[in-house]
Design goal:
There is one protein chain. The protein is an all-alpha fold. Helices cover about 70% and strands about 0% of the residues. Helix 5 packs antiparallel against helix 6 and helix 6 runs parallel beside helix 15. The model has no long low-confidence stretch (mean pLDDT about 80).
């Protein structure tokens, strides 16, 4: 009998991350000793998130196409820079006013992890309806923000977190290895793409195994607030992105999403700066909640902006096209009229 658990998980928005995360939280809440028996079980399901993160970064690197050039490279670079700037502004505004604690129960760690990420899978799906090949190709550069590297870089440069250079380098090395190997070996790139869901499931479980259900309930409302804030940034990204494009697109609004994988970022950042560990559990739950909310809001926002752009384009065409009364008479008519 084939139950197809994987397919059922995949149908849930962010299911490959959220479902293992919730299952592990429940086990750790009601039967914490089950995952602490030692050996391979504990290493894989309780303390294995760091190793899984290294593999995840390696896999992310294989999706970066260094041969991509022209408009896709330009668009990808603009999208990535906009996300980095958003994270930097978040650190400056929230960090300077509230410090690491943040506001409304949302730590600065959660806020920055939210704004420096976006849902790449959803972006690609939206490209099929509202973009072209250059928009889809942009993800080969834009996907750099899928891991914790951008979040760590922003927090480290701001001084809000003590992120050693070695910690940043440790995140960059697997990414670079994956990028080089994936561009040299197409078969390895395909292998990594197939393995990514398994790595995400195990990594999500390991992170959830260090949290409790009390944290999830506490972070519920603040996670909704974080998701709404992330969704509203899509409006700002829409206008900013189009400032750099000759042909306007609605896909800038797709940046107003929180990646489901961003729920894994706080734990990775806290490994580099243990002083942030106190915020990890709440931030993980908040980011998971925000990812679900923005999965629902982003398609609506992109569709509305696309409709708005098409309406404006049709108005321009109508203005340029001469009306029936303004159309010049044929030359023969003009001649016969002149003879009269």
């Amino acid at each position: 009998m084939n139950i197809n658990i994987f397919d059922k998980m995949n149908k849930v928005p962010g299911g490959l991350i959220i479902i293992p995360l919730v299952v592990a939280i429940l086990i750790n809440t009601f039967a914490p000793q089950a995952l602490s028996i030692g050996g391979p079980t504990t290493a894989l399901f309780k303390v294995g998130s760091s190793a899984m993160m290294g593999i995840f970064l390696l896999i992310c690197g294989t999706s970066i196409n260094i041969r991509q050039a022209g408009l896709p490279l330009y668009k990808g670079a603009v999208l990535l820079i906009l996300k980095c700037i958003a994270g930097a502004l978040a650190v400056w505004a929230v960090g300077s006013m509230f410090g690491p604690v943040g506001f409304l129960g949302i730590s600065t760690l959660a806020f920055v992890a939210c704004l420096t990420s976006s849902n790449s899978s959803l972006y690609i799906a939206l490209c099929s309806n509202y973009g072209d090949a250059s928009d889809a190709g942009a993800i080969s550069v834009f996907c750099v923000k899928d891991g914790p590297f951008v979040t760590m870089m922003v927090l480290g440069v701001s001084g809000l977190a003590n992120i050693p250079f070695a910690a940043l380098l440790s995140m960059l090395i697997p990414l670079l290895i994956g990028m080089l190997w994936g561009n040299l070996d197409e078969r390895f790139k395909q292998l990594c793409a197939s393995a990514q869901p398994l790595v995400i499931i195990i990594m999500s479980f390991a992170i959830g195994a260090n949290s409790s259900i009390n944290t999830v309930f506490t972070a519920g409302l603040s996670g909704i607030v974080l998701g709404i804030i992330s969704a509203f940034t899509g409006i700002l990204f829409y206008f900013l992105y189009n400032l750099f494009l000759k042909k306007k697109t609605a896909l800038g609004a797709a940046l107003g999403t929180t990646a489901a994988s961003s729920a894994l970022t706080p734990a990775m950042v806290a490994q580099a700066d243990p002083s942030l560990a106190v915020y990890v559990d709440a931030a993980t739950a908040q980011l998971a909640t925000a990812s679900i909310i923005t999965m629902l809001t982003a398609p609506v926002l992109v569709a509305w902006f696309d409709k708005r752009l098409k309406a404006r384009a049709s108005e321009v065409v109508e203005v340029k096209a001469p009306s029936a009364q303004e159309k010049p008479l044929p030359l023969s008519s003009q001649v016969s009229k002149g003879n009269k």
